[in-house]
Amino acid sequence: MRRRTVSAGNLEEILQATEPAPEPEQAVAAPAAAPARHEDHGLRTEFEFELPRGYVDEAGTVHRHGSMRLATARDELRPQIDLRVKENPAYLSVVLLSQVITRIGAITDVHAGVVERMYATDVAFLQDFYRRVNSEGHTRAAVTCPHCEGGFEVDLSGGRLGES
User: Whole-prediction pTM value?
Assistant: First the structure.
C-alpha cells in the first residue's frame, strides 16, 4: 500500500474524491428544481455560551456572549493535517475551537488568531464546553454546594443565577 502525503492545499480535493457517490434511485427520485426541506428533528446544533473573562478585540471592546455549533467529523479531522498542529500538538484545540465557534459578541469571523488572543481561562472554558456539547449533548453539570453539601445542576452556558 502506498502512502499519500496530505497538505492543507489539497484537503478539499481529497475529501471530495472520497465522498460516496449518490445512489441512482435518489438522483432520479428528487427533481433538480425542488427546494430542499429542512425538518426539525429536535436536535440542537448550536449552543450559546458566556465567557468567564471575555475576548478583547483590537478596539478594546470586550465580547463575552457567543455560540458554538456541534462539531462534525471533518472538523475533528482537518486539524490533524494542519502544519501548525504538526509542529505543536497543543495547537490542536486552538484550530478546533476556531472551526466550531460561530460567534463571539459581534465577531462572526472566528479564526485561530482570535482564539490565540483569548485569555487562558476562556480557552479552558471553551474546551470543556466543547467536550460537554459534543460528548454529552448538553451544557449542564452536576455540582455540590460546599456549604450545605446539597447537589444540583448548573448550566455552563453562562446564564445568570436563578435563570432556567
Answer: 0.61
For residue 86, the surrounding DSSP H or E stretch is helix 83-87
Residue 138 dihedral angles phi and psi, to the nearest 5°? -150, 175
CB burial of residue 131 (10 Å; 0-12, 13-18, 19+): exposed
Amino acid identity at 132: R
CA distance 46 to 62: 22
Per-residue model confidence as pLDDT tens digits over 37-81 = 555 566 788 999 999 999 999 999 999 999 999 999 999 999 989
Distances (CA, A) of 43 to 57, 108, 110, 116, 134: 33, 23, 24, 30, 12
What's the DSSP call for residue 130? H
SS3 131: helix
Asked whether 75 and 92 are in contact (CB, 8 A), the reply is no
CA-nearest of 79, 65, 101, 77 to 15 is 77
The pairing of beta strand 151-155 with beta strand 62-69: unpaired
129 DSSP assignment: H
Alpha-carbon gap, residue 43 to 26, rounded angstroms? 24
Q: What mean pLDDT value characterizes the chain?
A: 78
Computed on alpha carbons and rounded to an integer, the radius of gyration of the chain in Å comes to 20
